[in-house]
Amino acid sequence: MVLSRLDRVVCSHSFLTSWSQIACVTLPRSHSDHHSLLVSCSASVSLGPRPFRFQGMWVYHPLFLNLVRSVWSSSFTGSGTGIVVQKLKLLKKVLRKWNYEVFRDIKLNVTKANEKVMLIQGRIGSEGFSDDLFRLETVALADLDSALKQQEIFLKEKSRVRWLAEGD
What we know:
- This protein is mainly alpha-helical.
- The protein is 57% helix and 7% strand.
- It has helices at residues 13-18, 64-72, 80-102, 106-127, 131-166, and strands spanning 21-26, 37-42.
């Protein structure tokens, strides 16, 4: 088992000056003997209060459909269109709260899952390989894959919104 990190990230000077905040993180090994590298860039622009946006990652959560059904099956009074508007407002409120409780900060979820895998892989490096550590690593890698999938869906949608607003 080889435990050295030789992977690198290379960027130009113009790239460095284009972004106000840049970070590079080494992700744990998952399906290869190489560590993936994650480069994060931001220009730190405040856009004011965030509007409500549907997140595609919600659909993959097992509780999502039951949550929507429970809100949609609640009864309201008024006209047909008024009832739909009331249900949508309630659904928006419930989804915001549910998103905060279940997903919270996607970056933080990935970071925590990454740290858990790194901790277990560090134990494998220091204590040697065992069946218990292998099982722990397998579960931790599955959690990391799930968190990365959520992050991928989130970032994909965010890039589409930015492209529609700003173009190429």
